[in-house]
Amino acid sequence: MATLTPYLSFRDDAREAMTFYQSVLGGALDVIEFAAFPGAMQDPADEHRVMHAYLETPDGMVLMGADTPTGTEYRAPQGVSVTVSADAERARGIWEALGEGGTVTMPYGTPPWGGEFGMVTDRFGVDWMVMGDPQA
Questions:
Q1: Segment 68-109, tens digit of pLDDT
Q2: pTM over the 0.70 mark
């Protein structure tokens, strides 16, 4: 089985962002700092930055992220959205939580294709599209 998993890059707030996503989506979060692999660290200032974070939810969603190390150009997310599809109740809760401190780009409601749908940019600058399926 093949998988495709979003991997988000952050400047210095990967731990905060991934902890927030865990609070929204649930599941187990593993965080590894650059200090765990000194050979991979080019700058001692990166010691406590996140080298890799892995979030897996009980219903099988996976999201990964990391801080961009010193000396590497950071580019804010642009032109990409993370999409979540879930049953209508769970999807609405996810959309509302992601919107706290963020910006609603499309109110959550009934789109022409059915179900429920909304778009939001969260407080970390990540764009999300959330689809609630009444049949799920």
A1: 999 899 998 888 999 999 999 999 999 999 999 999 999 999
A2: yes
Cβ-in-10-Å burial (0-12, 13-18, 19+) of 93 comes to middle
Token pair of 112 as six digits: 């022409």
SS (H, E, C) the chain: CCCCCCEEEECCCHHHHHHHHHHHHCCEEEEEEHHHCHHHCCCHHHCCCEEEEEEECCCCCEEEEEECCCCCCCCCCCCCEEEEEEEHHHHHHHHHHHHCCCEEEEEEECCCCCCEEEEEECCCCCEEEEEEECCC
Q: Which of 100, 96, 104 is nearest to 120 (CA)?
A: 104
Describe the strand order of the beta sheet including 28-33 as a list of residue ranges: 7-10, 62-67, 50-56, 28-33
- Give the position of tokens 């706290």: 100
Q: Do β-strands 62-67 and 50-56 pair in parallel, antiparallel, or remain unpaired? A: antiparallel
